[in-house]
Amino acid sequence: MKLAGTATRFRGLILGAAALGALLATGAVTTASAEALRDNWCKGVKIRFFVGGAEGDAFGTIVYNGAKQAAADTGADVEYVFSGWQLEKMVQQLREAIASAPAGIAMMGHPGPAAIMPLAEQAAAAGIKMEYQNVDVPDVRAKFGGGYVGANLDPQGRALGEQAIKQFGLKAGDTALIIADWSQENRVIREGATAKAFEDAGLKVVKLNSTPEMAGDPNLAIPVISAGLLANPEAKLIAYPGGQMLGNAPVYMQTVGKKPGEIANIGFDTSPQIVSAFKDGWVQLTSDQQPFLQGYIPILSLCGQIVYGLGPLNVDTGAGFVTPDNYKAVADLATEGLR
């Protein structure tokens, strides 16, 4: 598992890379040009940044902290947009962002290509640079440009399923529950890949339906998960679509009278709640997609494009697995809202 370093070390590496890239573009790296490097190199550049969740959201907070760090490091003038994971709200907020004519927009890809495509066209026509995070929209990017910062969703989802099979000794005929918003095709690429990995191994997969509101308030999922577990008492595992719900696993388990470790709880992301759940034995496996980077790098990419004329950055932020054996390595950073 690859673990991110401290924010300070990471900031230095990123700024150094950006500065070197700019100098290489001119064809001359000299002592004189090194002296021309400046702080706040993106000062005055207006950027709209979509956090995705609501203020205080477990996952969104880490994304927000990454974006705030990037703004502090580059000097960019960033306005943060909170959407509560509401797809229609994101689309309306994107319309409003384009109308305000910033230099760049960092957009969550959750609404999908059909909703984003016409707005990306408007942004391109207005000369607004776009970057996407967390959920990719490759068709949109192919037509109107922009980079993607986030996990490679299909491989990440399949890898989680395969790791769970190996880690928990699952076999054909075992039952696994997976909760996700199955109505949103673009949103369940990752969870669908986990389901496929289980199905390929002969497991019985039961799909439970979540809603975007459950990401903002994971307690809303209690009835759905409780009903799923009561209807499938033989279930060996439940997989969650994000850190908000995975961090709430102790509540779900206690609601149906399960003890720590009686059912394997797995999913994606890290957070203070997930670290606590690892410590107390409620969570056994998560795939870390490093949301701090999903906040930091989109702003860095937009600044590089706007100030230095660089190409958009594409970064796979998937970092491997967190388990009961290694969760302590990220515990302090998770508590700080950085992992």
Describe this protein's structure.
InterPro entries: Bact_Solute-Bind_Prot2, Peripla_BP_I, SBP_2_dom. It is found in: Periplasm. With 339 residues, the protein is α/β, with parallel strands linked by helices. It has two domains: 7-151 and 300-319, Rossmann fold (3-Layer(aba) Sandwich); 153-287, 3-Layer(aba) Sandwich (Rossmann fold). Helix content is 48%, strand content 15%. The protein is built from 15 helices and twelve strands. It has a six-stranded parallel β-sheet, sandwiched between helices. Helix 5 links the parallel strand 3 (104-108) and strand 4. Helix 4 (87-99) runs parallel beside helix 5 (113-125). The model is unreliable at 1-13 (pLDDT under 50).
Give me the CATH superfamily of the largest domain: Response regulator
The tally of helices reads 15
Structural class: alpha/beta
Helix content: 40-55%
Mean pLDDT equals: 91
CATH topology of the largest domain: Rossmann fold
Order of helices and strands: HHEHEHEHEHEHEHEHHEHHEHEHEEH
Domain Periplasmic binding protein: 51-300
Subcellular location: Periplasm
Family: Belongs to the bacterial solute-binding protein 2 family.
Protein name: Simple sugar transport system substrate-binding protein
List keywords for this structure.
disordered N terminus; about 350 residues; 2 domains; single chain; 6-stranded parallel β-sheet; Rossmann fold; 6-stranded mixed β-sheet; 12 strands; sugar transport; alpha/beta; signal; carbohydrate binding
Task: Put the structure in a nutshell.
The chain is α/β, with parallel strands linked by helices and 339 residues long. Helix content is 48%, strand content 15%.
